[in-house]
Amino acid sequence: MDVRGIPCGRSGAVNWQPFIISIKLASVTMLLLLVLATPVAYALAFSKFRGKAFLEALFALPLVLPPTVLGFFILIAAGNLSFIGRSYKEIFGTTLVFSFEGLVAGSILYSFPFAVSPIQNSFEAVNLSLLDTARTLGCTKWKAFWRVLVPAGKGGIITAAMLSFAHTMGEFGVVLMVGGSIPGKTRVASIAIYEEVERLNYHEAATASLVLLGFSFVILSAVYYFNRKMSLVTR
Amino acid sequence: MIIIDVKKRLNTFDMDVDLRLGQELTILAGPNGSGKSTLLKMVAGLERPDEGRIEVSGCVFFDGETNIAPEKRRVGYISQENSLFPWLTVEENISFGLKRTEKKRSKCWLEKLISELNLEKLLSRSISGLSGGEAQRVALARALAPRPRALLLDEPFSSVDPKKRPRLRRFLKEIQQDWDIPVLMVTHDHAEAYTLGERIFELNEGKIAEHKEKGKIIKMPFISY
User: Fold this and answer.
1) Is A231 on the interface with B (CB under 8 A)?
2) Among A89-93, B95-99, B103-107, B217-221, the least confident range
3) Is the pLDDT of residue B197 over 50?
4) In this complex, do A133 and B128 lie within 8 Å of one another by their Cβ atoms?
5) What is chain B written as a DSSP string?
6) Shortest CB distance from B83 goes to which of A130, A140, A234?
7) Which of A30, A38, B136, B167 is least crowded, fewest Cβ atoms below 10 Å from its Cβ?
8) What residues in B contact A134, CB-CB < 8 Å?
9) What residues in B contact A130, CB-CB < 8 Å?
């Protein structure tokens, strides 16, 4: 114990390995989310179909569900007793739970609304006459998507990428349930901090927390900066 | 030659239009919600008629069985709203409708177009810095760059300063005459309609209510305002 009564560890130095796993997890999740969330956002922005509100509510569930609840469902769905878990094991020869791949799957579900919502909003804000004009100028629907919708909705896509990255960096409940805390494999920064606190290594926990805080602040500042910049460019 | 013979059930009325237009500048006038913009969109391929036939310069765009996609119709379309792409420069906007290979082949054509519309000094500018008149000239150049079969204009000068409109009208008239391209234009502005139009069609609730040609007025007997 130090003089202020705060328990401290031996070194106070940051163990970077959980941060590297967190960054790797956040990067993979972000890239996969952009690929998966963009068509979903497109469908929600431009299609009218029965059950659209139901689907939107389903995609938004991770916003209100406690991460442990979501993590528990994923754990059950991906476990060896489930069809998904058994099929995964048959194909890849390893389990989805307590693996990095399992963490990625959980993170995608957990951060899905953070990727879909900004992209959907930016698509909905695009003036439809731009798309009409592009069609009459020789663009197929697919080309109009790439040449008009993506540049016009660039702000939303960048925001989605940054928010999914930052949200995955800070996730705790889902990764703990799905991945546990296997050092060098599934032990991410937030879990490492939790374990340092449990061991009463407050200095290590404080240093690692400050790193995570600074990182999150930088990402969010970048989101707001890009949003302002993009709204000026596309106005 | 443009043939538009279409029927479409809309929310508040049924559209039923039969028009045969030559290589001239034709005006579509009429009150708000009378179906003018819908008719232009049908020719552009952005709206599908329920039945009928649309033909431009001998090419059948729609006849119930055939419905050519907008990207294959090769018509220049300028919508009511400013539809320039704000993330591109003026030059990039103008050449948007040209494929890479076409850009090289169409260099002389583009230079002529840019010069006729007096856009040389604006090429590197961003769209946000353009005045209403400049933006419409850029939109006109972009619509003409792929050498369209016809030009469809939906109130193209509504956002332009009224003082600058006469000059743009002259531009449009000259281009239509020099390049012998059929132009179908929607406008609310009577002065614009009478200055530009060789023929003027008044549309009301999806039907031709009145047909005017330079110097004479032909009332449609079956429609009353």
Assistant:
1) no
2) B217-221
3) yes
4) no
5) -EEEEEEEE-SSSEEEEEEEE-SSEEEEE-STTSSHHHHHHHHHTSS--SEEEEEETTEEEESSS-B--HHHH-EEEE-SS----TTSBHHHHHTTTS-HHHHHHTHHHHHHHHHHTT-GGGTTSBGGG--HHHHHHHHHHHHHTT--SEEEEESTTTTS-GGGHHHHHHHHHHHHHHHT--EEEE-S-HHHHHHH-SEEEEEETTEEEEEEETTEEEE-TT---
6) A130
7) B167
8) 96
9) 83, 85
A125 at interface of B, judged by CB pairs closer than 8 A: no
- Judged by CB atoms closer than 8 Å, whether chains meet at A133 and B83 is answered as yes
Inter-chain CB proximity B99 and A138 less than 8 Å: yes
Q: Which residue of A has its CA nearest to B143?
A: A137
Chain B hits for A129, CB-CB cut-off 8 Å, are 79-81, 83
The answer, yes or no, to whether residue B223 has pLDDT greater than 50, is no
Chain segment A133-155, per-residue pLDDT in tens: 999 999 999 999 999 999 999 88
Residue B218 has pLDDT above 80, yes or no: no
The domains located in chain A, with CATH, are 17-234 (1.10.3720.10)
Nearest Cα of chain A lies from the Cα of B16 at a distance, in angstroms, of 24
Q: Do B99 and A140 touch (CB under 8 A)?
A: no
In this prediction, residues B96-100 reach a mean pLDDT of 89
The domain limits of chain B are: 2-216
pTM greater than the 0.95 cutoff: no
Nearest residue on chain A to B89, judged by CA atoms?
Answer: A233
Superfamily grouping for domain B2-216: P-loop containing nucleotide triphosphate hydrolases (3.40.50.300)
pLDDT of amino acid A10: 52
pLDDT at A142: 94
Question: Which contacts qualify for A205-210: CB closer than 8 Å, 24 or more apart?
Answer: A207/A12, A207/A13, A207/A14, A208/A14, A208/A15, A208/A18, A208/A19
How large is the average pLDDT for residues B137-149?
Answer: 92
**pLDDT at residue B222, rounded to an integer:** 40
Higher pLDDT, B159 or A158: A158
Parts of chain A with a pLDDT under 70: 1-13, 230-235
Q: Which of A130, A132, A234 lies at the smallest CB-CB distance from B46?
A: A132
Chains A, B: CB contacts under 8 A, how many? 64
Contact between chains at A132 and B77 (C-beta distance less than 8 A): yes
**What pLDDT score was predicted for residue A146?**
94
Beta-strand relationship, B183-186 and B199-204:
unpaired
